[in-house]
Amino acid sequence: xxxxxxxxxxxxxxxxxxxxxxxxxxxxxxxxxxxxxxxxxxxxxxxxxxxxxxxxxxxxxxxxxxxxxxxxxxxxxxxxxxxxxxxxxxxxxxxxxxxxxxxxxxxxxxxxxxxxxxxxxxxxxxxxxxxxxxxxxxxxxxxxxxxxxxxxxxxxxxxxxxxxxxxxxxxxxxxxxxxxxxxxxxxxxxxxxxxxxxxxxxxxxxxxxxxxxxxxxxxxxxxxxxxxxxxxxxxxxxxxxxxxxxxxxxxxxxxxxxxxxxxxxxxxxxxxxxxxxxxxxxxxxxxxxxxxxxxxxxxxxxxxxxxxxxxxxxxxxxxxxxxxxxxxxxxxxxxxxxxxxxxxxxxxxxxxxxxxxxxxxxxxxxxxxxxxxxxxxxxxxxxxxxxxxxxxxxxxxxxxxxxxxxxxxxxxxxxxxxxxxxxxxxxxxxxxxxxxxxxxxxxxxxxxxxxxxxxxxxxxxxxxxxxxxxxxxxxxxxxxxxxxxxxxxxxxxxxxx
Length: 497
Fold this sequence. Notes:
Shape: elongated
Strand content: 5-15%
Distance between the termini: 19 Å
Oligomer: single chain
Structural class: mainly alpha
């Protein structure tokens, strides 16, 4: 496959011209109604009225809950955007901002709560646990190994597997080999960087205490090997060899090519050994064995990559343009002013309400009925925000490069809100590829309803942005199956910018 072919972003239609035309008409109708509402009526009350009329099968309780959640989602998005812009002004990247934002999430929930969005990472953990089980059983009869020093073997396996997990989350292509060699001075674990061909060797020494570990190290010749010891012994063992003028690298975990495994205490391994040999409890890796920081920061990186993908997907806005063609639409000064001034809560409210009604009526079949309303509202809000960005670019207020960065921020803001609300799985798994298309459709609809000239400006700028975005996209391996699968895939299987 050529470099040119490899840089293409796959697109699927997802939205037909008929669906786009219906959605476009709905948004235009609801916007006219919104402009005519009593100024005393809140956005939530207007949404309740809309849902009550357009989705009569919805209960009064559901109507109120859905309307409230849409308003909250819009507000959360805007608050995150403000925070993100302020961070950017101080030199903080959007990915770093999201990583820090997500680190706040576990205050009320475990790493599993948002780490479980990485579905394929679950598969990796399952495979690692199978390998752990194989490592502690005899190949001849499948019985558990009863060696007194099995804790050392467990340490090798657990450290190697947690390193492998961390590497996978970071998209690092590492081969982690527990060698199980028993010859003198043999390597316990070898980590190879598959991209560069470089490797590092590790020797595990898990004596009952620091003195015993020191003795084990001194019996061998472990040059060109990094020594791994129990975490409570690191200081004493390191000081011993430093006093002798040794430059041995002594640590309590495997740290290779930017990936980091977990450290363990001697007693932890002994307890695992006891549970295994006495009760048959095989050790199991979980999300608790992976750094929350790693999870957060790499979700952040994926969100940034998805932003580029979304910008490169032109299907949605192309179909909206076709749906609009031939219709004369006068400039809507109210909407234009709202978009220019940033007082756009009304536009976002209408976009969210329209998208919700369209989904529940089956107008946009690419988004399943029952998709969380917070997800729907956030997607709509991103579309409105993108219109503002594209309009600024068209006027020359921001550069083409800035357009991608700004669109990236909207996506990252979306990600932060959805994960905090526990709804990120709906983006990654339920909707998947259509997300970028729907965002484009909302962007186009808002642009054209603001006025035909305004819409054309938005369309032309999106096309230029998409062209630039596509040049920045590189596909790993066999390519991306669906352009919008940003969080459901392991980092090594998504796009690298």
